[in-house]
Each structure stands twice: as C-alpha cells, then as structure tokens.
Design goal:
Radius of gyration: 17 Å
Strand order of the largest sheet: 3-2-1-4-5-7-6
Number of strands: 7
Bound molecules: S-adenosylmethionine
Oligomer: single chain
Number of helices: 8
CATH class: Alpha Beta
Structural class: alpha/beta
Helix content: 25-40%
Distance between the termini: 28 Å
Order of helices and strands: HHEHEEEHEHHEHHE
CATH superfamily: Vaccinia Virus protein VP39
CATH topology: Rossmann fold
Number of domains: 1
Length: 219
C-alpha cells in the first residue's frame, strides 16, 4: 500500500481479530452458494478484480485458468497467501492498477457501502481500471428480510442510490443456515447484541442480497 492509503480509508473488519466468528459467518451465510452462482454467471472470462476480497472465500470459488482473479485487500491479517489468487494490498479508493486492466471487477460486502463519503472515489477507480464494456458488480444486503428484522441498526443498502448511478439490480433470496441454535445465537449476538440473539429461535434465517451491476461505457 502507498502512503495515501491511510488507515482511516480502510473500513475495519472483524475477520482477523475474531476468526471464530468469521468462520461461522462464511460457512453459514449463503450456504447454497447462490451469490457465487450469480457472480459466476455474470462475470466474463478474462482478468477479474475482487475488491476487499477478505480471505479470498468468494474469489477462490470463481477463479479458473480462464478467469484469473486479483484479490485486492488492505488488511494483511485477512490475506491468505495459500489461496490460488493474485493478492495485492491496497484500497478501493486508490486501486494500484493501470487503466483498462480488468475485464470486470466485483465486491462482496466490502467498502462499497452507499453511505460512505468516499464511495464515489472507489467507483471512479473501478470505472478507470475496468475495460470498455467490462462489468462492475457490487453485492450487498437488500434488507426487508429475517436477517434485517433482527438487526438493531439499518443493514440494508440504498437501492435508489445505486439506481441513480446507473446500476441495475438483481435480488438473490438466500439464507444464513446454522448448524445449531447455539451457533446462530453466537453470531447474531456478536453482530447485534444479546437481546437480538435471544429473540431468534431459528437455525435458518431468511437473507435477501442484492447484486448491483453496470457496464463501463466506451471512453
Ligand atoms: C465484510 S469483509 C468481506 C470480505 C469478502 N469480500 C467476503 O465476501 O468474504 C470486507 C472486506 O473489505 C476490506 N476493506 C476495508 N476497507 C477497504 C477499502 N477501503 N478498500 C478495499 N477493501 C476494504 C476489509 O479489510 C475486509 O476484508
């Protein structure tokens, strides 16, 4: 990362400091892989960028010899060099790539949260580094589901905000499916507090996800 990639431009994520919680999240969220299937269908072959790749969970499931994936991630604690990905440390707002490098770029629940002040900076970077007619896909929470009804704060992305920026949306109806109520209680308590966790009696919780997509116009 270079000197302008200051710490205040990175959204703190708990994955490296609470690995046990992250393990539950990644195993139980969208167990049927509907988000991965959507991305697999929508992303082209060629060089693809995963922005805020975390430990590479999504990228390893999408990469192939004909679709190599570069994993951009600022938190060294998240980077898993054991995965067959090309890891680069950096941030979305200052993506360390030449213009028109990628056939597509995507982010899953990473950085592109529509309330952030510098999100347009991140989007401008994606539009710069993705080739003409290449795709940009941003995956986030859709809200209005069992998951958000447990939340003590707004967890849904603002669909109008994305529409105003020329993104189309696809809704994906998936779930968190836990192995036990104890596991569900642990993760919900960690996310939203003990009271929210105590209000849940289910091991499978409805979860609606939205994939926003747009095509980079010809320059
Ligand atoms: C919720 S995790 C999602 C990880 C992964 N995309 C997944 O679906 O498992 C968000 C990730 O975004 C990374 N991140 C935080 N600030 C960022 C920034 N400014 N640019 C790119 N990634 C960022 C965090 O370090 C974290 O790994």
């Amino acid at each position: 990362m270079n000197s302008s990639d200051s710490q205040d431009r990175i959204i703190r994520f708990y994955g490296a400091s609470h690995p046990a919680m992250f393990e539950i999240e990644r195993r139980c969220m969208d167990r049927d892989g509907l988000v991965i299937r959507h991305l697999d269908r929508e992303l082209p072959q060629g060089l693809v960028l995963d922005v805020g790749a975390g430990n590479g969970f999504t990228a390893v499931r999408l990469c192939s010899p004909s679709r190599p994936i570069v994993a951009l991630e600022p938190d060294s604690g998240m980077i898993d060099p054991g995965t067959p990905l090309l890891w680069i440390r950096g941030i979305a707002q200052n993506a360390p790539f030449r213009e028109s490098t990628f056939h597509a770029a995507y982010a899953t629940w990473a950085f592109f949260f529509d309330g952030l002040p510098d999100i347009d900076e991140g989007l401008a970077e994606l539009r710069r580094i993705v080739k003409n007619n290449g795709k940009i896909i941003i995956v986030d929470n859709a809200g209005d589901d069992g998951f958000s009804s447990l939340a003590t704060r707004n967890t849904a992305s603002n669909r109008g905000w994305w529409r105003d920026r020329g993104f189309d949306e696809t809704l994906i109806h998936t779930s968190f499916r836990f192995d036990s109520l104890d596991e569900a209680t642990k993760l919900i308590g960690f996310y939203f507090g003990d009271e929210a966790a105590a209000g849940n009696t289910k091991t499978e919780i409805e979860y609606r996800v939205v994939a926003y997509s747009t095509t980079v116009p010809k320059r």
